[in-house]
Sequence to fold (299 residues):
Amino acid sequence: MELRVDFTSPVPIYRQIVEGFRLAIARDELAPGDRLPSVRDLATELAINPNTVSSAYREMLNLGLATSRKGIGLFLAEGGPALAAREKRSKLAERVDDLFRFAAGLGFDADEVAAVVTLGAYALPLGGPPPWVVKLMRYPAVLRGVGALGRSRLGRPLVRGAVERAFSPTPAPAAYLEIAPRLALQPAALLGDGADREVAEEGLAALRPRYPGLLTPIVIVVGAQDRMVPPAVSERLHTLVPRSELVRVPGAGHMPQFSAPDAVVAAVDRAADLAGPPAVSGGASTYSRPAFASPRSGG
Fold:
């Protein structure tokens, strides 16, 4: 692989290095177990300070992209196709985000979005833990303590059990079990989640009056046995948005894109149908509805 850095970019150099390795993984230019260049060698090659390379490698360790072998060096983490697939999805999501930001910069707005597919949906009341727990989890010191416990030998089985319950009744993907807990329990991630929760209810309350006027077709996909974002929560949004359809995926828990990808693809197809002109048969609009789709009754 060829790694380059742009000294004129506002993106920190260490971050460019991390993103360069992530892109190489996504493109299959690096294989699990490949040894990474030494700090000195990479610093010399890029003409940068070795401390910058060290920062990039620490970030890769934290993200689960690399592993350290004492006395030998750093190696690309094991994980094979699962790791590459994760990075491909991640890079694609980043490009989609970039596309939306670019479109907004050109003056396009939400009225010009053809349709939306959302995996689960939030609407007030959020539910979840008791209010005192939510309030407690907003304190950085508490969040750091939770992260330290989750990463400990005692806490790791508890975290694994929580992930398995979230995906139940389908098995949690092996790669997700290996990587996601480590990422979610990083201090920065926990603090970010706490900050999100703090503003979520205020933001949802501000959005609620806008829902009746939202005419963009929305397909809401939710696992019928999702314990993290129960179907009842998605149903509340479904009742508020006029042109929404609710897809309950039988036998699926949280994140049905892992356990029922075909159902999610079908939902995307359905959203495309809603966005485009309907097929006309005998003067009536018709379409073939997936067996698992549950549109608004009477709509």
In short: The beta strands are 66-69, 73-76, 116-119, 218-223, 244-249, 279-281, 284-286, 293-295.
